[in-house]
Amino acid sequence: MEETDVVFLWGSNARAAHPIWFHHLLKGIHNGAKLYVMDPRRTESAQWADVWLGLNVGSDIALSNTMAREIIHAGLVHQEFVSNATSGYEAYKASVESYTLEKGALLTGVPADVIRDAAHTFAKADRAMICWTLGITQHHDAADNVLALINLCLLTGHVGRWGCGCNPLRGQNNVQGGGDMGAIPNKYPGFQEITDPSIQARFEKHWTVKLQPEAGRNLTQMLHAMASGEMTSLYVIGENPVQSDADGHHVEQALKGLDHLVVQEIVMTKTAELAHVVLPAAATWCEGEGTVTNSERRVQRCRKASEPPDGAKDELWIIAQIAKRLGHDWGTPTAEEVWNEFREVAPEFAGGMSYERLDALNGIQWPCPDESHPGTTFLHERLWEKGEKRGPAAPFTVVRHEGPVEMPDAEFPLLLTTGRRLESYNTGVQTAGYDSPLHWGEMLDISPEDAARLGISDNEEARITSRRGSVVAPAHIDRSLRAGMVFMTFHFPENVATNLLTLDVSDPKSGTAEFKACAVRVEPSRALAGSAHT
Amino acid sequence: MDIRLLDAEPTAEERSAVDDVLGAPGSSWDGGDRGSARDSHTAEFGGRATRERRHLLLPAFQALQARVGFITEGGLDYVCARLGVPPAEAWGVATFYAMLATSPRPRRMVHVCDDIACRAKGAAGLCASLEREAGAPISHEPAGHHVALDREKAAWMHSPCLGLCDVAPAALVVEAGAKTVERSIGHATKDGVLSLLGGKAPGPDGASTPHIGRSPLIVGGGLLERVGKVDPASLAAYRAAGGYAALAKAVDMGAEGVIREVTASNLVGRGGAAFPTGRKWEAVRTQPAQPHYLVCNADESEPGTFKDRVLLTEDPFAIVEAMTIGAFATGAEKGFLYIRADYPLAYERMQGAIVQARAAGLLGENILGRGLRFDIEIRRGAGAYICGEETALFESIEGKRGEPRNKPPFPVSYGLFGKPTTMNNVETFANIPAIVLDGGAAFAKVGTAQSTGTRLFCLSGTVRKPGVYEVPFGTKLSALIGMAGGVPEGRTLKAVLLGGAAGGFVRADELDITLTHEDTRATGTTLGSGVVMLFDETADLRDAVLRIAAFFRDESCGQCVPCRVGTVRQEEALHRIASGKMRGGVKGELALLDELGDAMKDGSICGLGQTAYSAVESAIKRLGLYSDAGSATA
Amino acid sequence: MTTPFVQIRRPDREPKKMVELQVDGIAVSVPEGTTILGAARTIGIDIPTLCYLETLRPVNVCRVCMVEVEGSRVLVPSCSRAAEPGMIVRTGNDRVKHTRKMVLELLASSVDLSTTPGMAALLDEYECDPERYGPPAPPAAAGVRDAAVCGHHTPPNPDFAATLAQPPIVDNDLYVRDYAKCVLCYKCVEACGVDHQNTFAIAVAGRGFDARISTELAVTLPDSACVYCGNCIAVCPTGALMAKREFDMRGDGSWHEEKQTSADTICPYCGVGCTLTLHVQDNEIVKATSPLDNGITMGNLCIKGRFGWRFVQRKPEAGSQEAGTGAL
């Protein structure tokens, strides 16, 4: 990051959402890197860009395919890498052929010369990388968006090398670690396939239990299963879906229909309020022990700094107690013991990461198979190897522009997109607790043009209505927004439940929901107050 | 950059002043109107290209100052929006320069000098009577009590040395507006200043008729040859007088040939540090990093110094030609002339010279048709003595606070914008054409073996014929003073300030000093910037010392502790002596001053702090100015 | 088009040449680019510093670390001057000690150093007598120093020594700026600026003794560009910048550093994985910092990491059923 030449920051306002990562990007910039930011809004991050590409919401694939076509036509493809290390190039090439600069400009709104310049700069750079966040993944075609960016890196050979690559910035401190440890429906710990019988056999032997062979449901599928009555019980640990998930009404109804809801939480969230049983838990990050994995796959230790409040229990203890009541006496395992078991069942992944080494090296980047291994700074280096060592080819994937599911129309003329602000976090469960001078509450960011047209002044209450719900929030006139777009967060669900507006449409491949685009109508609240009684 | 602005709207006047310097905004993202479809979907503002325009910050502020009379909130905000400079940074820069006002000021201001040379000529009395008749000056103290100020009613304020010591007491009138008026006032009188405060239009510039003197030992040539004889506003006149022959010859000789002659001439810098010019040029020429820059230091601010003003005003083409030769020799294509704020006439003449030279193909592309490329941009100072220090001057051109850098690295490798840079003083450059034309050996024949050529001296204070005098190195101080007629009839010379505020006093019985680098070094004095300021019995020497101490306190940039706090403690000690409230008697105070002086000398970042005790020390040790002060209270 | 050479691994750094020099008579060999301070520390010679910090570019303004280098006309700042072959350095002779003593004394006579760690011992060691400059002048009223403009100043009052004394600025709930304690080391400006945060909410304004750290037009922090990352607090060597919590606790006498424990954990927010050092007193987190030598943070945090930990210890409201869960 600090030694790269070109950075595409795509669908990420890292300045606000990943401030310390942004420090490293800034070091890269000061070292001479060129920054391109792709974001419908000219965010704080975009304001650092040498070039901002303010694409239309949901036109990411159109933009990347257009760039790909331009790179191909300009003869800037990294032929050697493409022929040695990738597959599916011809099909991909054919699939982007229709994305001319003119078509790209039409679909994305970004002027053709700007797309061309970005494509050329990226392809010609010695080192270049693409970094993205939820602007790419909170769409109904999230996985395709990611694949489109991977295609660009494959096309130009910007992968598996120092200062290059695809870099998704994780939004939560252990979203990566959750996956590492198997908290995803289709993998065992260490990303081992549930459906692979040999792996399953290994885990069954280790755990001395029979394991069911099917992949589980993802969150969106679970909600549907609850709604349809297929799923009747739910154990929620440290999540607040009532407020964090799209289409909040729908989630609340699904949870209310359960026979049995257990919520393990550190505070009494809206979700916990619906629970039949609440298990008060210690805040493991500072009142317990464990590990987390960050965006760069670095496993680091969390350590206990203070005792939990009376009554709150260590999470491992809670889980072990539940296991005991279900007939499995695990005793009282320590975090390190659990970790060491993980190292045993996923040796190629974590075998070399003892607590001792994690301490000594300030964390280790997986994979780290043995205790002499320094950890892995970047992945996919093998693609540059010769012969056998290169391994399977990296596939291009054909992806097509579809655009958002819901587009503005006469009734709902504005496009609402959502995101984070610097000082707050998700549903505000944690960030509501400190006296931040930046804590302004929820706001509707609106362009000066729309505000003027609608007769809304700065700080005035506005009503925002979508096909699914309606909320009221003060307007904030934001010059970084173009006309036709409005922006909100979901940090203050107590006051403004933004997710009553958003769509319950999610990506079939990854299960992530379309938070980034829904059509809304905005009116001054005062105008409605007058007519409310009629 | 994600900067946060103040949300203060600029007026049309402020907008146009800034746009005159920066050009019209390129998009809605840097201060233009919203609405363009392109701006909705792309921006190229805020990245590296924007940050590289930071050096325009000071010119933009100066445009506001010249148009409005102070840096308004709206103006500050607009400059920040246009250049992408964070407002706090911009504020830090604006508050660094004394000629930029950050609180409301009247459109017309009269800056009345009360520095050492002007004090010796009655400036204190002038200020006192102004205070009686025109009211208190605009104070540099907290702005609160000027809130109710009438912007249309002119006001006056104290000023440090204006470089007009030959016509002391001096003043400067500046009127902000669409057409800015800036005029130096020589021989300022109470009535003259009062009429300016009353709205009267100022007369011709007071710097336009300098007095010069030349040693009879200088035959042919010399630095003042054209002064008063050749029209400084005419390129044709300059060429008719032999101008630009040197540049043509230099190109024939090639860069290495030029440097060979400059080295052979043994020319050393005239700004004060006396570094060999040939060595400096060779060091820059051979630096691999590109581009190279060339800077002419015309920020002459040492109290008592005005020689460069005379050269800039009276022989501007010579400076342009010499800079072009220097650029050719050192491989620079871009030059800056950094001229102090309060030399309006010199600025005008230099600007005129550059425009004419450019039109005549003597600057720009393909100079003289010989493929040489070079151009000069003038940057004006904004009221900061420290910017005469070379690295502070770089910072100032770069749009920052004029804070000196620690050296090494030296400017020859890491100078302006971090690139190899040649910086020379105006007088140093003025010597170059003759060296090129006549050869280094001929130049070295004048003066002494170690101090070659001639030197300009600024005679001021209680001297009969103040002015700029050119003498060969090796002339006796007494002879130089004799040329200027000594002190007025019937008065007695008490002391001479040699070298400026950063130099030192010598006694009347020490005039046998030979004016060479080697002899002054041997006698513990310095030629500095060529100041020779005379004090007879009518001048208050202790008052001059207090003023020097106050000057250093005012002009310290504030970066390093020894200078920032040391100059305050030095001034306090001198005031305790002056008021008879010594701690530990005079002896104790003098010992304290010595301890402070050693720490400032050894511990400060730059020459300002390192020399802040020089003049005070000489007053104590050479003049024995305080040897009788303690008797009453010690 | 094929690139002839493709860099895969991190480019090898040329091994640095070694530089031989002598510090206080001891021969030292250090890699090229090492400062004199670094060289001295390798042989256990400690030179005191104030404006120096490993994670910031040296500004060499405090002049506490000055040493003598043979052949140099003046002393040189050891924190920024690179070691050169054959250099002969003296870190503690009379000349060096004099300047160091004067610098410390000048600071102590004008700045409140009462919360500067290690300062009392240093002032003793160098036999500083800040009182010899006279009794300190009465504190300036709020805002007066912020409004100072450069140019002629009011002549000094011979009865007093000028100081920076002024009331602390408390304009937000997260941190306090007590500029009576500011030694103008520039660290906060660097941390807020180009070295780390690049927010540029503060800069040095004014000149000379009137130079001060300021927002634009000295507006309050909430009206400034400040994003409350607190990275300025983290680098402040004198306690001029302090978290409000600590400021308040010191004010009411409940701040007891000797009773505090600390543990390193990982910030509970985004996926960057910043190490948080939580400082705990009486089982309550009172401060969060990050280690300077942490490759991810370099000691920096954002507002959430620095201040957003209060949620774990909000006390349950009286009579609440939510034992152990705290309020929202």
3D architecture notes:
The complex is a heterotrimer of chains A (534), B (634) and C (328). Chain A is α/β, with parallel strands linked by helices. Chain A folds into 3 domains: 6-169, Dimethylsulfoxide Reductase, domain 2; 175-365, Rossmann fold, CATH 3.40.50; 414-529, Beta Barrel (Barwin-like endoglucanases). Chain A is built from 22 helices and 21 strands. A 6-stranded mixed beta barrel of chain A has the order 16-20-17-19-18-21. A 5-stranded parallel beta sheet of chain A has the order 3-2-1-5-6. In chain A, helix 3 packs antiparallel against helix 6, helix 6 (101-108) crosses helix 7 and helix 12 (219-227) packs across helix 14 (248-256). Chain B is α/β, with parallel strands linked by helices and 634 residues long. In chain B, strands 6-13-12-16-14-15 form a 6-stranded mixed beta sheet. A 5-stranded mixed beta sheet of chain B has the order 9-10-8-7-11. In chain B, helix 1 (12-22) packs parallel to helix 5 (73-83). The radius of gyration of chain B is 24 Å and the shape is globular. A 5-stranded mixed beta sheet of chain C has the order 2-1-5-3-4, sandwiched between helices. Chain C has a domain at 164-252: Alpha-Beta Plaits (2-Layer Sandwich). Chains in contact: A-B, A-C, B-C. Chains A and C meet through helix 2, helix 4, helix 16 and strand 13 of A and strand 10, strand 11 and helix 7 of C.
The CATH topology of the largest domain in chain A is Rossmann fold
Q: Please state the structural category of chain B.
A: alpha/beta
Most strands sheet of chain A: 6 strands, mixed, barrel
Q: What oligomeric state is this?
A: heterotrimer
- How many distinct domains of chain B? 5
- What is the CATH-assigned architecture of the largest domain in chain B? 3-Layer(aba) Sandwich
Number of helices of chain B: 25
CATH fold-type name of the largest domain in chain B: Rossmann fold
Low-confidence stretches of chain B: 630-634
Number of strands of chain B: 16
- Mind telling me the C-alpha Rg of chain A? 24 Å
Short structural description:
The complex is a heterotrimer of chains A (534), B (634) and C (328). With 634 residues, chain B is α/β, with parallel strands linked by helices.
Identify the notable features of this structure and list them briefly.
heterotrimer; A: 534 residues; alpha/beta; Dimethylsulfoxide Reductase, domain 2; Rossmann fold; Barwin-like endoglucanases; 3 domains; disordered C terminus; C: 328 residues; alpha+beta; Alpha-Beta Plaits; 3-stranded antiparallel beta sheet
